[in-house]
Amino acid sequence: MKKKIFAFLGGTILVVTILTIAMIINHHINQKKTETMLSKSSQHYIDKIITSEMDSGHIPGLSVLIMKDNKVYLNKGYGYANTSTKVKATPKTRYEIASNTKAFTGYAILQLENEGKLHLSDKVSKYVPGFYMKYKDKRIDDITINQLIAQTSGIPGDITDNDTITSKNDSLSGIVDSIKGRELNNKPGDQFEYSNMNYDILGLIVQKVSGQSYSSYLENQIFSPLNMHQTYVKGDTEKKGSTAQGYEIKHGKAVKDNPKYNVGDGPAAYMVSSTKDLESWMSRQLNPTQATQSLVQSSHKPKVKTADDNKAPSYATGWFVDDSEANTIVYHPGTLENFSSYILLNKKKNYGIVVLANAYSDKTPDIAEDLNSQILNNKNYTTIENAINQSSLVSYVIITLSLFITIAIAFYMLRRIINIYHGTFVIHVQWKLLGYFLIIMAVFISLMTAIYLLPDLVMGNTNWDFIMVWLPLHAKLALWSVMLTILCATITLVTMLFSKKKR
Asked: For the Beta-lactamase-related domain, which residue ranges apply (predicted)?
């Protein structure tokens, strides 16, 4: 009778434990993980800033990335990637990043220059035969690559606004060919005028010089080396993953919008990416390797003032630059009819912010600026790493206690094994012990599962892979020592259970 009770009890405990753990882990795995180093109070404050601006701008969904000192401080989705299907925005949600594509196109040009395949002083007509424009009815065929980069070519910002998209101009070569011979607003090199066409032409030059399509070059030379495996240029083959639905805000409501676009505008405005993929791009911008340092510095170097005002920002290579004695802010907004983005870098203080939204809204740059203000002024912005470092004494106490307990348990277990070897103790396996064994294993699995789920329980929706990147060494040692103690204790209990003194 006792055997049946133990078997039933043990079996029930084991089944319930396994089912409970399976449900918890399944829920844990299926959740879209957030990466955050922020303390709960800071996270709550940052969340409040973001959601307040989202509500004010009627933005359905967005994703935010904050990096500092080459660490991800926050990577989190807010709202919905698609309001119809109720798919939530996450760090892996992809958005059309609009004009933030220009920094990639500019970087590609600088790569080709670094390889000696072109010079920034080269005329566009060298790579696009027959290309010319007009200024005051005079033929102009000496526009240079550098003028395209600096947005000083004189090409009007609205040069294709009234054009109808046709099969003839719906390509990179087609859109560039369609503007040949049109009138410039300014003499090349004289004045800054922001125009997407400048970067479309640069994209065509990348294509001509590299012998690859623009999208293939970016994939092979930028995306793949940076492990940006979910990023692509719109119009190219879409990669697997979740892409946000774009929305237009009408009368305070988000309305699904899929406007027509010209594939030829890809190098200026139609890259598709996520805050997760952009982590490596931001890391490249803020902490370049020795091999890429000169390229990154060149891309951030101001080329021209955007207005006749000392306080006006400069334009670099696909970036605006606001330089002051205290801080150098490198940034770029991005707007489409149904998406918006904002990327900001503080080079001197080594941090960056990315905001990607699935609606056109002036609140997108506001969110980035609000977050920038929080970091810059160090207000309501504390991290768990700092809190853990401040309580390092607790970690050392845990390590010391765990070490003593583990040594004591190991010594006891070793004695028992030696006794079994010498025959003073014997292995003793009985059915009535099964219930106890299952209880021990259930406790062990439950404790290890609790440790596995600790990031969720303490910090919210995050994971160990992310946490182990920034977790201080003393905290890692404390964690490993506790796990080792639990493992040794479990093995010892099982050894004690199935061995007894020989009579």
From this structure: 46-362
